[in-house]
Amino acid sequence: MLPAKAFYLIRHGESEANKAQIAAGGGIDSPLTAKGQQQAKDLAPLIASLEVQPTVIHHSAMQRAADTARYINDGLGLDMTGTWDLREHDIGDWEGQPWAPVMQDINEKVEPPNGETYWRFAQRIQSAFTDVLESEDTEAPDFVPMIVCHGGVFHAMGLLYEYGISEIQNCHLHYYEPHPEYGEFPWKVSVFDIEDGKLVKKPANFCLSQALEDII
């Protein structure tokens, strides 16, 4: 599993493939749309308001993630590292196909023809995240990386822990805090919505039961 260290995780802004509703995994380097660029630019100045500040940015080497990271980093000036193994799921023959039937196959657990299996993808993400989370001195308590990548990466994390993850919106910031007492999915996950020009912290939809336990 992953090292028990806090981190931010965010999907890239809207890409041209997202807009066109076509499947683009690790084999199509789809750029951001103008809307996707603006999503990242709108988020960038709000990062300074976070109670826990990111200290470094790691991002997928794919254009849509790298550009999202660059826009977010405007004004922060953090060190950034691009990593090939943080790329989206390589989905083989599904690349470039209409999204709706591909999504149906994914929901039915059909393996991507001539692509990465779900488990191989999850193992790649586990290895890449471990490298990120262990890339700094373990004695540095303020080390909190921000990882900019893809929607599939969230689902790969869910697969590692056998925990279902709902749909992830473009450029939606998540914060993962290790909580071993939660058992099967030992993370408390918060999301940050932009409301009236401010970041509002809320429990992630896929961790609502954990949030309820905290209240009770």
Describe, in plain words, how this protein is organized in 3D.
By secondary structure, this protein is an alpha/beta fold. It has seven helices and seven strands. A seven-stranded mixed sheet has the order 3-2-4-1-5-6-7, with helices on both faces. Strand 6 (187-195) and strand 7 form a beta hairpin. The two termini are 28 Å apart.
Inertia-based shape: globular
Q: How many E-type strands?
A: 7
Assign the structural class, choosing from mainly alpha, mainly beta, alpha/beta, alpha+beta, or little secondary structure.
alpha/beta
Question: Share of helix among residues?
Answer: 25-40%
Radius of gyration: 17 Å
Beta-strand proportion: 15-25%
Largest sheet: 7 strands, mixed
Please state the oligomeric state of the protein chains shown: single chain
Distance between the termini: 28 Å
> Roughly what is the average pLDDT, rounded to an integer?
91
Strands ordered across the widest β-sheet: 3-2-4-1-5-6-7
Count helical runs: 7
Uncertain runs are: 208-216
What is the helix/strand order? Answer: EHHEHEHHEHEEEH
Keywords:
7-stranded mixed beta sheet; 216 residues; 7 strands; alpha/beta
